[in-house]
Each structure stands twice: as C-alpha cells, then as structure tokens.
C-alpha cells in the first residue's frame, strides 16, 4: 500500500538534514533544499536546479510540497484586499491586507472555520474543519507581503491573528508559524509587530507567558460581567472572568507586555452603566488599552451597534480612569473583509 507522502515543509531544517544523512548523503544537502523551500519559494522539486537529479527524484518519491493558492482577490474601495486562500486539500480560508497611510497589516487565519461559538461572529457559523499547518499560516503572510510590495510599494509592517479561528486552540502551529515569520531565515519580522488575538482561553494564555513569547496579546473581552459574556460568547461559561483575569495577571507578570482588550458595544446587551463600570474595574487589574470595535452586522437582528451616546459614555469613563481607549472603524466592509465577517461567502466550488 502506498503511504501518503509527507509535506516536506512540515520538516525543520534539522529534520531535513537528518533525512539526507540517513540516506547516506551530506547533511549540507538539507540546508540547500531548505533554502529552496523557504527562501526561494520552490513549488516543485524540479525547480531545485542546483540539486542533483537523483536527489530530486528521491525527494519526489518521499515528499510533496504543499502550497496555498490565492484563488480570489477582492479589493475594497478603501484599499483593503481580501484573499480567498485555497489549501492543498481544497479547503478555503481568508486573509486580509489592511493598508493605512504608514502601515500595511496582514490579518491571517489560524483555523479552517472556528470551534468557538461567539453569537456575533460570522466565522463561528462555519464548522471547524481543521487547524492550519505552520506553513499554511506562513504562506498567507508571504502572499500579503507580496501584495503589499506590489500595490503599496512597501513590505508588510504588522500581522494580526484576527482572521478565522481561535489561534490559541491551534497553539503549536501558530507558535511555529510565528517562529518562522520572525526568524532571519523566514521574513525576519519583529515579534513586536505581531498581535495574537484570543477570545480568552486562560490555560493557553498562561502557556504563552511560560513560553516567554515576544509578540503582543489581544483579548476579545466584549463584557466584564460573566452572565453577559457567556450570553454573547457561550463557550466562556467554561472560562469565568476570574480565571481570565488570573491568567492575564500571570501573562503581565512574566512578559510586562500591555494587553489590548477588544470590545464591541451592542444596543441593550452591554450598553448599561453597570457594563461600563465592570469594564473600568477589569481594566485596572493589568496594564491595558481598549479598542472599541465598530460592529459589523452579520444579518442577525439580535446584535445592533449601540448608539453614539453609549459609546461616548464608555470613552469618557475609561479616559476618566486613565485607560487608553481607541475607536476602531472597520475596513473592507463592502467585501465582507471586516472583523467577524470572514465566512468564505464567495467560496468557489470545491476542487
Ligand atoms: N478568535 C480570535 C480571533 C478572531 S476574531 C478572537 O476571538 O479574538 C477577531 C476580532 O473580531 C475579535 O475581537 C472578535 O471579537 C471580533 N469580531 C467578531 N465578529 C465581529 C463582528 N461581527 N463585528 C465586529 N467585530 C467582530
């Protein structure tokens, strides 16, 4: 029986070197092939022109090179670009390029679909099909870096893990992808320019702290009252705010890195004075800033953006307490590329 060939890009450089040694070849051959795979972006073994034919055949017999393919690119009137990214097994995820005057940010996916059940998010309606591999995450970033160079004449400057999926539910692969993105052998980006956003999985936040990661952390809070939060994000019933708070205190004690809370204010859900008071109190536990995100409706009557007065009340209360708050307006709404809108709406027929 023919066993399925392994994705060669799942191997570390060390493992590739070991493979060649086990074949009676030189370890150096592993470096050469690794460079083709990661620096020169080879899509086939035949591309590896300085590798002997017999060696290429050996690779062909043992491995495949899986690559993502950008199937469809949609451009918003505000310059935002959404990529529909086809994976080697035909599944599709989305990633977004968000340009501003001075920066280009890539918003990337970490899972196909999402296992969480946030009631206001379109991705939550897609079943979680699988985790993305490190190379599939890395490739999304490379694709956006190329688009940034092409359309904006500058490299990518920032990355946010705010696309499809919950990054901390695909912990190892996300960490491996970030290692590659930040390594001089990959894109050499500073981890300070990378933000991982989580809906708040306390155990994994502690693990991040223990692993002494250097990137930034954002938490989708949306309410600092347990009953309200578990109404809008039902999974959070298993992760009470007390545990979340404790994990964030631990994160800060280890990393000294300020946390960003993402927060949407909805009408009749979290626009009362007690909601504001609870957030202000929660913000005092750990150094943080608050991003008030504009709500992007996902055809559901239950959730409606709160009125301006409620949002202003939030801003006033936070500022009065010396908490940094910014209002984030959505980008790419016309192409369903804004926060919470990634749902493969335009997915081409499966291949
Ligand atoms: N699972 C991770 C990352 C993906 S969501 C997380 O929850 O943080 C990225 C951000 O978009 C989160 O802050 C999420 O709460 C927010 N979001 C989801 N749906 C939204 C919507 N319809 N309008 C505005 N923001 C939304």
| Tally of strands | 14
Main-sheet strand order equals 3-4-5-6-9-10-11-12-13-14
Kindly report the CATH topology of the largest domain.
TIM Barrel
Order of helices and strands: EHHHEEEEEEEHEHEHEHHEHEHE
Instruction: Briefly note the structural class of the backbone.
Output: alpha/beta
Shape: elongated
Domain unit count: 2
Level of helix content?
A: 25-40%
Question: Cα-atom Rg, whole angstroms?
Answer: 22 Å
Note the main attributes of this structure.
351 residues, alpha/beta, DNA polymerase, domain 1, TIM Barrel, 2 domains, ten-stranded mixed beta sheet, two-stranded parallel ribbon, 10 helices, 14 strands, 33% helix, binds S-adenosyl-L-homocysteine
Descriptive notes:
Helix 4 (134-152) crosses helix 5 and helix 6 (202-210) runs parallel beside helix 8. The protein has helices at residues 13-22, 28-38, 53-62, 134-152, 171-182, 202-210, 226-232, 241-255, 273-283, 308-320, and strands at 6-7, 63-64, 69-75, 81-86, 92-99, 104-107, 111-112, 130-131, 158-161, 194-198, 216-220, 259-263, 288-293, 324-328. The chain is elongated and about 70 Å long. By secondary structure, the chain is of the alpha/beta class. The strands form three sheets. The chain has a ten-stranded mixed sheet with strand order 3-4-5-6-9-10-11-12-13-14, covered by helices on one side. The protein folds into two domains: 6-64, DNA polymerase, domain 1, CATH 1.10.150.530; 69-335, TIM Barrel (Alpha-Beta Barrel), CATH 3.20.20.70. The mean pLDDT is 93. Strand 12, helix 9 (273-283) and strand 13 form a beta-alpha-beta unit. Helix content is 33%, strand content 18%. It starts with 5 loop residues before the first strand and ends in a 23-residue tail after the last strand. The site of S-adenosyl-L-homocysteine has 16 residues, from strand 10.
